[in-house]
């Protein structure tokens, strides 16, 4: 069955460092991979989308890589800030937009 | 600032009661999703509509859950009868089928069934 794995353990880093979160998947050939941020008590918020034919995408301090051979995406936050503390979810989507599957998320804590 | 709205934000009910959750998608969006989020299962897709037609509700327990879109501005999710295991946060999301289904989530309905 289709499976997405994100680090279940929280990631603790110091302010100013780069946070790197991992998303691995099996039994799926996604057309798109998305990253969302979720704060406690709120709905997920879209951050970045990367297509299967793209290796890397950047947006301000965020960078996403997508390796369809390894079936892995890495999500980087450079110069991290305490305000970046949240849960980050990756989501896979097949062609036609059917049935987006979300990972369980990784909790990030950035200490001042 | 266009947003997905959901009502109610919180609901406490007793086992066996009917629960109705409502969602207003962003104006102009033609896809609507219902998700359930729990600590154990994470975010699970319950139902998915495109242009008001149900496309996928395979994640929804059919015997007690139903999802509808009476019109383009309203989506509903009903649970009848509710059970304690239905306690979760229910999110509605909307999007545009313009090549990728970036989803815009509402604030969620936090449901507690006693």
Describe the structure.
The complex is a heterodimer of chains A (112) and B (114). Chain A is an all-beta fold and 112 residues long. Chain A is built from no helices and 11 strands. Chain A has strands spanning 3-6, 11-14, 19-26, 32-38, 45-51, 56-59, 62-67, 72-77, 86-93, 101-102, 106-111. Chain A starts with a strand and ends with a strand. Chain B contains no helices and 11 strands. By secondary structure, chain B is mostly beta strands. In chain B, strands 2, 4, 5, 6, 9, 10 and 11 form a 7-stranded mixed beta sheet that branches. Chain B has a 4-stranded antiparallel beta sheet with strand order 1-3-8-7, with no helix packed on it. Helices cover 0% and strands 54% of the residues of chain B. In chain B, strand 4 and strand 5 form a beta hairpin. Classes of the chains: A mainly beta (112), B mainly beta (114). At the A-B interface, strand 5 and strand 10 of A face strand 4, strand 5, strand 9 and strand 10 of B.
Features:
heterodimer; A: about 110 residues; mainly beta; six-stranded mixed β-sheet; five-stranded antiparallel β-sheet; 11 strands; about 0% helix; B: about 110 residues; seven-stranded mixed β-sheet; four-stranded antiparallel β-sheet; globular
Provide the gyration radius of chain A in Å. 13 Å
**CA-based shape of chain A:** globular
Fraction of residues in helix of chain A:
under 10%
| Tally of strands of chain B | 11
- Strand element count of chain A: 11
Instruction: State which percent range the strand residues of chain B make up.
Output: over 45%
Largest sheet of chain A: 6 strands, mixed
Which class of secondary structure composition applies to the elements of chain A? Answer: mainly beta
Distance between the termini of chain B: 36 Å
Strand content of chain A: over 45%
Largest interface: A-B, 22 and 24 residues
The biggest sheet of chain B amounts to: 7 strands, mixed
* CA-based gyration radius of chain B: 13 Å
The number of helical segments of chain A is 0
- Summed up, the helix count of chain B is 0
Mean pLDDT of chain A: 91
Give the topology string of chain B: H per helix, E per strand: EEEEEEEEEEE
Gross geometry of chain B:
globular
In the predicted model, the low-confidence regions of chain B spanning at least 5 consecutive residues are: none
């Amino acid at each position: 069955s289709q499976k997405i794995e994100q680090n279940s353990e929280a990631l603790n880093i110091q302010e100013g460092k780069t946070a790197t979160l991992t998303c691995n998947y099996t039994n799926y050939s996604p057309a798109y991979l998305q990253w969302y941020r979720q704060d406690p008590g709120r709905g997920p918020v879209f951050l970045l989308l990367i297509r299967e034919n793209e290796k890397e995408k950047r947006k301000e301090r965020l960078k996403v890589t997508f390796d369809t051979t390894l079936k892995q995406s890495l999500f980087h936050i450079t110069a991290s800030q305490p305000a970046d503390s949240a849960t980050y979810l990756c989501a896979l989507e097949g062609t036609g937009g059917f049935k987006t599957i979300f990972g369980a998320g990784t909790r990030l804590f950035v200490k001042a | 600032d266009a947003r997905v709205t959901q009502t109610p934000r919180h609901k406490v009910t007793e086992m066996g009661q009917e629960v109705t959750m409502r969602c207003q998608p962003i104006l102009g969006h033609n896809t609507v999703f219902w998700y359930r989020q729990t600590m154990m299962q994470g975010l699970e897709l319950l139902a998915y509509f495109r242009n008001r037609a149900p496309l996928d509700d395979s994640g929804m327990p059919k015997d007690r859950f139903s999802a509808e879109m009476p019109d383009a501005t309203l989506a509903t999710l009903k649970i009848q009868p509710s059970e304690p295991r239905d306690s979760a946060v229910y999110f509605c999301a909307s999007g545009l089928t313009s090549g990728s289904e970036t989803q815009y989530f509402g604030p969620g309905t936090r449901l507690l069934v006693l």
